[in-house]
Amino acid sequence: MQRRTTEEKIDVWILLERIKRGDREAFTELVRLHQKRIFLLAFSFFHNREDAMDIVQETFLRFYQKIHSFQKGKNFQSWILQIAKNLCIDHYRKNHSQRKEWRSDKNIEEMNLPSQDNHDSNRASDLKAIFSRCLENLAERQRMVFVLKHYNQLKYKEIAEVLNISQGTVKSLHFKAVRNLRDLVNPYLGGVQ
C-alpha cells in the first residue's frame, strides 16, 4: 500500500511539472483524478449539484492560477481540498440568504420507508436517501469530517490539514458525527430512540 501511495505522489509531481509547461492532457488527467473528491466535499457543504459543480470548476481554475505556489513535498490532495473548502466557505458567505432554498422542504420524518415487497434496489435507494437526509442534519463541521473520512477516504491527519484544525478535534467531530448519525438513522432501521 505504501508503494502505491509513493507512485501516486510521483504521478502527481510528473503531472504538475507537465501542467507547468502547458500540457493540457496532464491538466485533464489531474482533474480526472481529483474532481470526484472535490465534488463530494462541495456537495456535502451545499447539498446542491449545480453549486458543487461550480466549486469544482472554480477549484481547478484557482489551482491553475496557484500551481507555482504549491510546495514540493506537501500533500497535493490536502492542498487542493483546502482550496475547495475555502471556496465553499466564500460561496456560502456570499449566498447565505439563499441557503434555505437549497434544502429540501421535506422533513426526514415525512420520508416514506420502503415496504417489504419492494425490490432490493429500491430499498437500497431509499436507504441511501434516508442516510443522505440524516447526514444533512449533522452540524456543518461534523458533516465535513464525516464526508472527508468516509467518502474521500482521508486519514485524520489529512482532514486536520484540510480543515485547519487539530487532529484531536477531527477525531472528536468524527466520533460525534457517527454517534449522531446512528441516532438519526436508528428509527428507520427498526431501532428504538
Structure description:
The chain has 193 residues and is mostly helical. The protein folds into two domains: 2-98, RNA polymerase sigma factor, region 2, helix turn helix motif (Rna Polymerase Sigma Factor, Chain: A, Orthogonal Bundle), CATH 1.10.1740.10; 119-189, Orthogonal Bundle (Arc Repressor Mutant, subunit A). Helix content is 72%, strand content 0%. The protein has nine helices and no strands. Helix 8 crosses helix 9 (167-185). The longest helix is centred in the N-terminal third of the chain and has 23 residues, at 24-46. The radius of gyration is 19 Å and the shape is elongated. It starts with a helix and ends in an 8-residue tail after the last helix. Residues 1-7 and 97-119 have low confidence and may be disordered.
